[in-house]
Design goal:
Layout lengths: L14 H26 L3 H18 L8 E3 L4 H7 L13 H25 L1 H5 L4 H23 L3 H17 L3 H4 L1 H15 L26 H7 L2 H20 L4 H22 L5 E3 L1 H10 L5 H13 L3 H8 L3 H25 L7 H19 L3 E5 L2 E5 L1 H15 L11 H8 L5
């Protein structure tokens, strides 16, 4: 399918091929989308439901023009780990997870604020306060902060973890066609199979699960410390969103930042995150995996994403599948996380490289240094705790780094960053984003 002309209307393909292409997008997003609830303890079924509903909401708000799928965001893993860390026995922290969801909900509201500002003042003026020299190091810090948890998970069974890790690397580099698009899913499948053969998986409880059922909801709660800890992460994820939209535009040859407009895509992403977190699912974000499928198939019709969303909703109502996913060994998750968390940091590095951040300038070096040291240093100390208006507040290392980075960028002279809404000027920079 790589040699044909781009298809922007799947009605020319027929119903059967259209459904298969939509299912392909489901496979592309599935591995990463379900991995986030496994790592945080949030319900898998609810995550799939909200990914599907969030995608449909996004398409509604963007006039159905942008071929994007919204899956679980990995950027908030550090926030969940700070507010609701998994218990010593590996079980979910059900007491604190609702508060983490409340923090993510407020982070989604930040999208709405930026969307309103962009609508009122234009993207160029607002984005000047969030240059890559700030967002890049923040994204780098997220991956580095999460790295120790990957090692701890791998340590539960290194052979199983290494099978997952090696599989992901092999298929990501040498895979062909669909295999190259879903190396994470393949890595989980092969490592999972190895764990079953080694007797490391217990399926005894699967008979108690219903074939069909409705997802369980965890209603969010609000806590000042959780909100302050998690909200700053939105600064990084909004930049990731802009990169995704630019990448989709570069792939399809359309300027989605201009039409339907960056304010609409941010609004859709933010409201989808609010919806998901309100009912106990991870934050949503536009998925680069699905952009890769667009590039592979050259079928750009947004209807495919809506079909994938319907598949995700359907899967959320099959508890037996959710149980099988929950039985994935911790070591398998560790092997996947080993490279995944490193890739988060690598995306941050790519962010500053593609935007040609000049580190020969002292101001840029200082800003990056402040962010990295604050994020890693204060995270090792558990953040900073204090009382404000009678409320106990804890700022995580990532929250401190975000605040310091934004203030330093605003105060230090020489901010020459200019955001452009011209997708043609951005095309070269974001051309490799979805590889």
């Amino acid at each position: 399918m790589n040699n044909h002309e781009p298809i922007t209307d799947v009605r020319t393909l027929g119903t059967g091929k259209t459904i298969i292409l939509g299912l392909q997008h489901t496979f592309a997003m599935f591995g990463a989308t379900v991995l986030v609830p496994i790592l945080t303890g949030l319900p898998i079924a609810t995550t799939l439901l909200m990914a599907g509903l969030g995608t449909l909401l996004f398409h509604l708000l963007t006039k159905g023009q942008v071929p994007a799928f919204l899956g679980s965001s990995f950027a908030f893993l550090g926030g969940y780990a700070a507010v609701a860390p998994m218990l010593a026995d590996g079980s979910p922290n059900t007491e604190m997870l609702p508060y983490a969801c409340g923090g993510v909900f407020c982070a989604g509201l930040v999208y709405l604020i930026l969307s309103t500002l962009i609508k009122g003042f234009g993207a160029k003026r607002v984005m000047r306060f969030f240059p890559p020299v700030v967002t890049g190091p923040i994204i780098i810090s997220i991956g580095l902060i999460l790295a120790p948890s990957a090692i701890n998970n791998c340590a539960t069974n290194w052979p199983i973890a290494l099978i997952a890790l090696v599989t992901v690397i092999v298929f990501n580099i040498w895979g062909r066609g669909m295999a190259k698009i879903i190396p994470i899913l393949i890595g989980v499948a092969i490592s999972y199979a190895a764990a079953i053969i080694m007797g490391e998986v217990d399926f005894s409880g699967i008979s108690d699960e219903a074939i069909l059922g409705f997802p369980d909801f965890t209603i969010m709660k609000f806590d000042v410390s959780a909100i302050i800890t998690i909200m700053p992460i939105a600064l990084a994820t909004m930049m990731e969103h802009i990169g995704d939209i630019s990448a989709i535009g570069a792939t399809t040859g359309k300027n989605y930042i201009a039409e339907p407009g960056l304010h609409r895509t941010l609004l859709g992403d933010g409201l989808a995150t609010c919806l998901a977190s309100a009912f106990g699912a991870p934050a949503n974000t536009t998925y680069g995996e699905n952009t890769g499928v667009l590039a592979l198939t050259k079928v750009y019709d947004p209807r495919l994403m809506r079909i994938a969303a319907l598949f995700a909703i359907a899967l959320s109502c099959i508890p037996k599948i959710a149980f099988v996913i929950e039985c994935i060994p911790t070591a398998t998750i560790g092997g996947i996380s080993f490279i995944l968390y490193g890739m988060i940091s690598a995306i941050g590095i790519r962010n500053v490289v593609e935007n040609q951040v000049d580190f020969t300038k002292s101001r840029n070096t200082i800003i990056a240094a402040l962010i990295l040291v604050c994020a890693l240093g204060f995270n090792s100390l558990g953040g900073i705790s204090f009382t404000l208006f009678g409320a106990n507040i804890t700022l995580s290392g990532l929250a401190i780094a975000s605040i310091v980075g934004i203030l330093a960028n605003a105060i230090l002279p020489g901010n020459e960053y200019e955001f452009t809404e011209d997708v043609n000027e951005e095309k070269d920079k974001f051309q490799t984003y979805n590889v």
